[in-house]
Amino acid sequence: MPFNEPGTEAPAQPAMATAAASADQPAQQFAVYDGTMGSVGKIAVVNALLGLFTLGIYRFWGKTNMRRHLWSRVTLLGDRLEYTGKAMELLLGFLVAAVAMAALSGALVGIQLLVGGNEALRVSLTTVYMVVLYFLIFFAVFRARRYRLLRTQWRGIRFSQTGSARSYALRAMGLLFLTGFTLGLTYPYMQNHLQSYRTNHTWFGNRQLAFDGRASELFWKWVLALVLFIPTLGISLLWYSVTEFRYFTSRTRFGGLSFSSTLTTMKVFLIYLVFAIAFFVLYLVLIGGIGGVMAVTTDFSSVGQADNPFAHMSPVTVLGIVIASLVVVSLLNVVQFILFLHPMIRAVTETLLVTGTIDLDDIKQSDAQRGGQGEGLADVLDVGAI
Amino acid sequence: MSDYHGSFNDGSSAVRQDVSVSIDLAGLRITGTDQAVPIIWPFTELEAVDNIATQVPFRIGCTSWPDARLTLNDQRLLSDFRVHAPHLFGPPVSKRLRNIALSIAGAGLLGASIWFGLPLASKWVASTVPIEWEVAIADQFSGELVKEFAAMTNDEPRVCDNRAGLLALDGLIVRLAEAGGSPYDFQVQVIDGGLNNAFALPGGRIFIFRGLLEFAQSPDQLAAVLAHEMGHVTLQHGTTAIVQGLGISFVFSVLLGDMGGGVVAAAGEILLRMSYSREAEAEADRSAIALLQKADLKFGGLSSFFERLAEEDGDLPAALQMLSTHPSSEQRARLTEGMEDSGRPALSDKEWQALRDICKQ
Which chain B residue shows the shortest CA-CA distance from A154? Predict the structure, then answer.
């Protein structure tokens, strides 16, 4: 049964269900995002406030609430996405990952202090640590993606991800070295390879997504972006990212469905611009305010020489500054959700097109189990296995 | 009972089935699926996927049918749900408020245990660090620190090595070290710099600047400063501060996750270390007095030195001050109240003169 049956889909997009009913039809919009600045902003503000009052512990619940909201506001072909993650999973995973990271960085700091005098040993130790850290970052990103896919459902069917985080991270590290070795020239190759690994290991129910992009199609665009980097004040990199995104989208297939994106650099640039202006205005105002408080309570005559500008303030002043900084950081977080993430999701979804058909009768529930752990714990368990 | 129109996903296939839904005694009755008999979802097992009060259409799940979803768009159902399954509308406000209050109380408890527990934990960790490690740590920082301090008065750091001066200094050190019975091997160096300061690093390395030798009015005052710095070493104040600094920046980055920036971590670190430091200085003072007494030296130099320093420091830029976290002179005077200061002088006049000339080449 193709998904063109009339149903109870969101009234806002009645044409959606028949969107891709036949292959010769022109491309139709694939996704609709109907979140509003108000709805996203409200959750972001609540999360920021409770995050402050609970020393940041609320963020696992806040993150979960935000995801539930954002997911449920994205409609694909007439049906909304659903996020089924639980805050406790994130918290537990995080705690274990935190302990592991504490042990790792504690060991590094300890060894570094001990070998102190030996410069060569110190440099090689720092190098090893950086390599391990980058490996863990790629590793964690892949695991977190798996967690999110396993907790994303559409029509009651969940997404999943196969492939191994270790293999992904090793590939990423190798490609990163290659990119560094070629002074960035092979960057499209790295991007394409990793995108291929991610997409080709992504499933919806018992069906796999497919990606067949080729880095050579991106290479000269990347070179052009590098050449134009200085004359365009770096905007050429944004152009490249958008171009890459459109290319990757066009090489992605799910069954008989193929995708394309008409996202423009201008659209993304404007989002960045508005966000950057708002961010800096807010930042200056708030930092100025804190500076004013400090000026009243601190003797600045010696700040130039002091190795530590906090040493001559009362604990109350320092506490005030800590709290003010926290407020600033969480406010900027809220602005990021309202002025960056929200418009970005809208820009990407409203330019995402689909052609072709797919037989939804064939798609069955995924065998992949959700597992009880969050993003962090999975990371840590696999780290332990290495 | 009226029938409502809905669509059903059974959780095992992506097919959407058009169904009709009615309110039964036991629960939601779903007919028109590919099942032979109508499906009953008991009210108590229903769960809301969306915010059903505000979102249309909204989705309902059932705990005994994992992944199955019923999508409904008829808000008339809400009145039925309010009667039969009020939990679909979320927990009542009182429960939410209670949860928030509990979380904030929990966070407060966590904060308090970090605030009070971290210094204790750092102290314990520091006590497990072998002395060789402390020395290794100190060796790493000593050069940089001496250079930094010397730069404050635009001096090139040079270790003073006038023979007679070294002899006098070593005599005093040995006397203090033997009396104290500290496991640390104290190595004291005089740096040819005008700064009126002295500092101790973990493991027993102590640095005195020429400026302090010139400032001190008597060998007793110098002995008191030395005993004070030895107290810092033996009590592991430096090591504890390093452990604590690492601990605080870690706790901040962990607790605040992406919220915590560098400013926050640094400020928090110093905030805690500051209150700790004042206490550490007092502790070092107490240990200095005990040490001077054991070595049969006068301890009056301690309060007279720091008192004079306090007067002097008032005129100095903060960076050059030695006293920013030291106890007040009244507090210091109270330490020795009622005690008889009967010890011998720390150095003979000749030795004292030689020591003051230690930087002469």
Answer: B14
Asked if residue A89 and residue A148 are part of one domain, the reply reads: yes
Give the Cα separation of A40 and A35 in Å (integer). Answer: 7
In this prediction, residue A104 carries a pLDDT of 77
- CA dist A275 and A94 (Å) reads 29
Residue contact B18–A72, C-beta within 8 A: no
Domain co-membership, A105 together with A145 = yes
pLDDT at A65 over 70: yes
Q: Do A157 and B14 touch (CB under 8 A)?
A: yes
A307 in B contact zone (CB under 8 Å): yes
Q: Tokens standing for B293?
A: 């007494």
Q: Of the ranges A14-23, A278-287, B352-361, which one carries the lowest mean pLDDT score?
A: A14-23
Q: Are residues B69 and A156, on separate chains, in Cβ contact within 8 Å? A: yes
Contact between B255 and A82 using a beta-carbon 8 Å cutoff: no
Q: Do B106 and A57 touch (CB under 8 A)?
A: yes
A167 and A97 in one domain? no
Most confident of A2-11, A109-118, A258-267, B48-57: A258-267
The DSSP 8-state label assigned to residue A297 in this structure reads H
For residue range B60-84, what is the model confidence (pLDDT) as tens digits? 999 998 889 999 988 888 888 888 8
Cis preceding linkage at B317, omega within 30: no
In a domain, A98, yes or no: yes
For residues A360 and B87, what is the distance between their CA atoms, to the nearest angstrom? 33
- Domains (range + CATH), chain B: 4-88 (2.30.29.30), 120-356 (no CATH)
Q: Find, among A210, A86, A88, the residue nearest to A148 by Cα.
A: A86
Domain assignment of residue A89, given as a range? 84-160+370-380
Type of residue numbered A45: V
Residues B200, B232: contact at Cβ < 8 Å?
A: yes
3-state secondary structure of A20: coil
For A:221-280, CB contacts with B below 8 A are none
One domain, residues A183 and A124: no
Q: Give A303→chain B minimum CA distance, Å.
A: 8
Q: Give the one of A8, A116, A154 whose C-beta lies nearest to B139's C-beta.
A: A116
A173 and A147 in a common domain: no
Which residues numbered 24-83 in A keep a CB inside 8 Å of some CB on B?
50-51, 53-59, 72, 79-80, 82
pLDDT at A4: 39
Predicted confidence (pLDDT) per residue in A268-281, tens digit: 999 999 999 998 88
Report if residue A21 sits inside a domain: no
Confidence check on the interface: ipTM exceeds 0.95, yes or no: no
Same domain for A142 and A177, yes or no, is: no
User: CA of B60, closest CA in chain A: separation in Å?
Assistant: 11
Residue A94 shares a structural domain with residue A138: yes
The DSSP bridge partners found for residue A157 are A154
**A-chain residues near B145 (CB < 8 A):** none
Q: Among partner residues B11, B50, B140, which is closest to A156 by beta-carbon distance?
A: B11
* Total structural domains within chain A: 2
Compute the half-sphere exposure of residue A179: CA atoms within 13 Å on the CB side of its CA. Answer: 16
Of A275-284, B29-38, B265-274, the one with minimum mean pLDDT is B265-274
CB contact under 8 A, A55 and B111: yes
Say if A228 falls within a structural domain: yes
Query: pLDDT tens, B322-340?
Result: 545 566 666 777 777 777 7
Helical pair A87-115 and A59-72, crossing angle rounded to 10 deg: 130
DSSP secondary structure, B236-295, as one string:
THHHHHHHHHHHHHHHHHHHHGGG--HHHHHHHHHHHHHHHHHHHHHHHHHHHHHHHHHT
